[in-house]
Amino acid sequence: MAGIVSSLQFVNAQKSIVNELPPRLYIQGREMFLNNNYTGAENTLNEFKQTNKEKSLQLEADYMIAAGAYFRGKENSATILREYLDTYPESYHRNDICFYIGSSFFNEKDWAKALYWFNQSDIAYLSISDQEDYSFRSAYALLQEGNREEAARRFDILARNSNKYYEPATFYKAYIDFRNGNYDKSLETFERLKNNPEYKEQSLFFITQGYFLKNDLNSAINAGTNYLNSYPDNNNSAEIYRILGNSYYRSGNTNESISYYEKYLNKTDKPFREDMFQLGTAYSQANSPAQAIKALQFAASTDDQLGQASYMLLGQNYLKVNDNSNALMAFDAASRAKFDPSISEVALYNYALLVHKTSLSIFDQSITVLQRFLKEYPNSKYVNEINNQLASTLLSTKDYQAALNVIDQMNAPGRQILEAKQSILFQLGAQDFIDGKYDQAIQRFNACINMGNYDSKSKNESYFWRGETRYRQNEFAAAAKDYQTYTSLTNSTDSNYSLALYNLGYSYFKQKQYNNSLSSLQQYIAQEKNSQSLTYADALNRIGDCYLYNRNFSDAERAYTQASTRNQQSAEYADFQKAFVMGLQHNYNGKISALDAMIRKYPESQYIDDAMYEKSRALVMTGREQEATSVLSQMLNKFPDSNIAAKAGVLLGQSYYNTNQTNQAISTYKKVIERDKNTEEARIALQSLEGIYRDINDISSYANYANSLGSGVIISTSRQDSLTYLAAENVYMKGRTAEAVNTMRKYLQTYPNGQFAGDAHYYIGIVAYENKDNVTALNEFNQTVQSGNSKNLSKALLHIGDIQLANNDTQAAYNTFKRLERVAVNSEEKNAAQLGILKTAGASGNDNEIITTTTQLLSSDKTSPEVISEARLARAKAYLNISATNKAVEDLTKAATDTRSVYGAEAQYLLADTYLKAKAYDKAEQQVLQLMKQGTPHAYWMARSIIVLSDTYKAKGDKFQAKQYLESLDANYTGNEPEIRSMISERLAALNN
Questions:
Q1: What Pfam families would the database entry show (predicted)?
Q2: Which of 74, 114, 340, 470 could form an S-S bond across to 475 if both were Cys, CB 3.0 to 4.6 Å?
Q3: Cα 470 to Cα 960: distance, rounded to the nearest angstrom
Q4: What's the whole-model pTM score?
Q5: Which helix (H) or strand (E) holds 709?
Q6: C-alpha closest to that of 249 among 278, 292, 207
Q7: Could you report the per-residue pLDDT of 507-537, keeping only the tens digit for each?
Q8: Is-contact 174 189, C-beta < 8 A?
């Protein structure tokens, strides 16, 4: 029994120990909490919670753990506190907890959440110390959230009732007064607080700002100076420098203003625009235009009056440093901004004068800007001067169409204006000629000539260029008449006099008036000073041709010899012709030797096939038939598409027969018959074949072969066939084209495979082509090619290629021009073929062929200047594609010399773009400025060049000029190409970010 009692006592003793342990851990934790040992309290209280069963103690323990997390600044204390509220929503610690949560967000500068939780707490239930903290923190958070009125009220209460927060509350109350514009009241407080080391710096800063905002400039200068003496380099010094610079400027002390503004600029990347305008003005007054420009670029804008005034002053300073292009941009921008009409007027006046003085503008606005001024400011004091400038500008403008429009609107223009009009009509005609608009060019030149003698030079030049235009249109008689008129009206010293004689000789030559041609070309030779020029050597060749056609062989040979020694590009033709003339003089051995020398010297010559053919003829004449057959075989293998292939085939067949190679002769004649059907050579070959079969007594084989040909080959031409066609051709030659087409079609119905079927199809095609019926024309020209008659083959191919190119059938056009290149009968057709190859090869990206073809084209003395520019541009693009930049630049530089041409304008753009991509920014800039100086009627390429200039300035770090040129382009460009507008808007958006 005693043992049981003892055991019970022991158990009871154990129970009492267990029951007493939790309160002790709780008490220890609470003491640690009250002693600010929050970590120890947390550990002890967590141990207590493991065995505690009392809810009230659990609540208290959790409160102290949560509050301790806040007091020791635990990172997730706000979360811990909120979890406590979620667990014990009715806790009597709720006000403290909400205050602590708000204070956690306050420490994180999350003002909105801080205020929310502060508002969840009733300040009356907080301790006195927490009440003060609550008041200050809530006031400060309200201030940060922009509720200055309530923040001021709370700071005011604190300043009157709290020792702890008296000075900070007083400071922030003064700050709010300052922000509300109560400068006198705030300054009084800041003056008092500046003696407190904790608030001295900020007080001095606000004192300086306060005096400045009150326009008490002397006090602001003194306060700012004191501030900088005490705090020479801190976060607020930039603003103090700005205030001092501004105050000194408004006080009239320019030097001190500049000094402090410069220090301000060293402290900030984004200065205030108003201050930069003042600094720019100060620099202007101090005659420092370069520095003024840098400052004003921060302020210039078309968005407000300050920006407009800045642009005006900027333009004036650009003039001082002779930067006319940027001065134009600035005056243009100032004139477009309408915030201050007086500035707009003066800016537009300066802009107009500068355009007239320098001929420099994005687009040739020398006339339009003057008209704009008269329209916008009809009562301006500058009207008389602008009118005088307009009259003068009409005589010198590059925007000829605009000038003509202005003159045509005048009621009674005086002689000076009529002189200008006649000159403008000539310039417009010349521009149309350059652009290939020949009909329009003729109209311009006619109008110029019909005006009489207001400007005799323009009238005379119109005769010359009308002759050029008519020559390009194959109107050789009319061209000759114009050249004759030009030479009769001008002196031999005039720039185009010699060229007129040369062209006159060619016009006669094209009409087969060889005596007249010879006379004109000889006059040209006597007049031309440069005997090494292409035209000089070419004229000698034509003189040789004239002698040749007149059968004056010795003089012809002498002329060809002279041409051969004058110019490399004319020598191959001259050497060939000289050899040909030797043959006409029965010097066959000399002819053979000369042709061999020519073939060795020019292995890639376009005359190689002719040279081999003529050599074979000379070999036949010297009885060397075997050698002749070898040469002819080589020629036909190498040049199967030559325009003389049929003749060569006939001669080869005859040579084989003469050398008893009968089978080879038969085979050769059959090739001619089958390949060149319906030609004179095919008929000769068939007749020769008949003779061979007769000689070998095999008429049946001949008959079988001839019958197998069917109607595809005409054995003999009927008299009726010939007369019917010639009658139709005669109608065409008289200009009765509609009647001629009907007659030609009747001929084709009667003789669908007649000897002249190819010619008939060609002339029907020409009429359709001239009537812009390209579908019919293409069909007829194809019939010409398929007829096998080579008389008009090359001409038909040229038209086919042009139509295919117009139809964007690039591959077909390429194939056509390649064939034309092989069969071209003269250098003009060969040039046309090569130009077509350039255009089509470019579309297919065949850069190497473009380079090769262009090089051949440029080596020809028959290539016209506008074709040369187009060819150089095409080759430059190809060089760029294969990264041969230096060669591209060389071609572009030459092509860019004449910006009247679209090719010259594009070359200018490509040069600038190439320099930009190579990071040669100065070269890119100068290239565009040069184009602006020269001007061009091709606005699209000017716009593209201006965009390159903007990109160049951006790459150089000059965003202001980059933006300025884009804005001017956007305002002045009248084109409607969407890509230009897109380029402008994208770049402006990037620059504004």
A1: TPR_16 (PF13432), TPR_6 (PF13174), TPR_8 (PF13181)
A2: 470
A3: 51
A4: 0.66
A5: none
A6: 278
A7: 999 999 999 999 999 999 998 888 888 788 8
A8: yes
